[in-house]
Structures are given as C-alpha cells and as structure tokens.
Design goal:
Structural class: alpha+beta
Radius of gyration: 15 Å
Number of helices: 4
Helix content: 25-40%
Number of strands: 6
Strand content: 35-45%
Distance between the termini: 39 Å
Protein name: Nuclear transport factor 2 family protein
Number of domains: 1
InterPro entries: CHP02096, NTF2-like_dom_sf, SnoaL-like
Shape: globular
CATH class: Alpha Beta
Largest sheet: 6 strands, mixed
Organism: Ruegeria aquimaris
Order of helices and strands: HHEEHEEEEH
Length: about 130
C-alpha cells in the first residue's frame, strides 16, 4: 500500500492534482495542520487549488513508512516552498522562500488513501516568511 502513498507524493511534486485525487478514496478525510477536517475528493481538490494559488512547494528527503498489514502509512519530508499569494490570516506574501520539516499520516482502504493527516510547525513557517 505504500506504493499508493509514493504515487500520491510523486503527483504532488509534479503538480498533478488529478494524480493525487486518483490515489484517494471518494470519502477521503483530509486533516490539515490548522483547520477543519475536509471530507471527500471535491473538498480535497478545492484545498489543492487554494494551496497552488498561495504556495509553490516541492518535497524532498522523503521517507515513507508502512505499518504491518498495509492499512496505515506515514511519511517524513522537507517542504521547500515559495509563498506566492497572501493567505488569509497569515503574513503578507512577496515571494519568500521557506524550508520546513513536515510529516503526513495515512489510512489506506482497498488500495486507496482514505485519511490524510499532515503536520508541520506553523510558528517556524511564519518566522521564516516574516524574516524573508
């Protein structure tokens, strides 16, 4: 099942939202670092569109872990990004770059990702883009 997670991240790095959606179950639960849980592919797609307007990100130093039985996985990585457009409630964007450790946790059901939970240090990100 970690192959599904790897395909998901390959699609992310390629800017291929449809490729990411293809890895998700119809009722995927998307738990973001700061915010409400979004349920379903449509909500996930809307989130991706918003993120792509405000940020240009590429993930490196990826390590994917899989739990025995293949129903859960986790990934650790570095987010290398550029802040493109001011996001609501956050510092003003003017092309600042950032490098941020992050991680994601997954539940897999029938070969698809049914839960994505992502964590990063928002205070670290704010500090980086405020000093940039």
């Amino acid at each position: 099942m970690s192959e599904t997670v790897k395909r998901y991240f390959e699609a992310f790095n390629a800017g291929d939202v449809q490729g990411m959606l293809d890895c998700l179950s119809e009722d995927v639960a998307h738990h973001v670092n700061e915010g409400q849980i979004r349920v379903g592919k449509e909500k996930f797609s809307e989130f991706c569109a918003h993120m792509n307007r405000c940020y240009n990100e590429h993930l490196t130093d990826m390590v994917v872990f899989e739990a025995e039985g293949g129903t859960r996985a986790a990934a650790e990585f570095i987010v290398n990004g550029t802040y493109l457009q001011t996001d609501s409630g956050l510092p003003e964007a003017h092309g600042q770059t950032y490098r941020l450790p992050a991680g994601s946790f997954f539940t897999l059901t029938d070969g698809k990702i049914s839960r994505v939970t992502t964590f990063y240090n928002l205070a670290d990100w704010v500090k980086q883009v405020s000093n940039g």
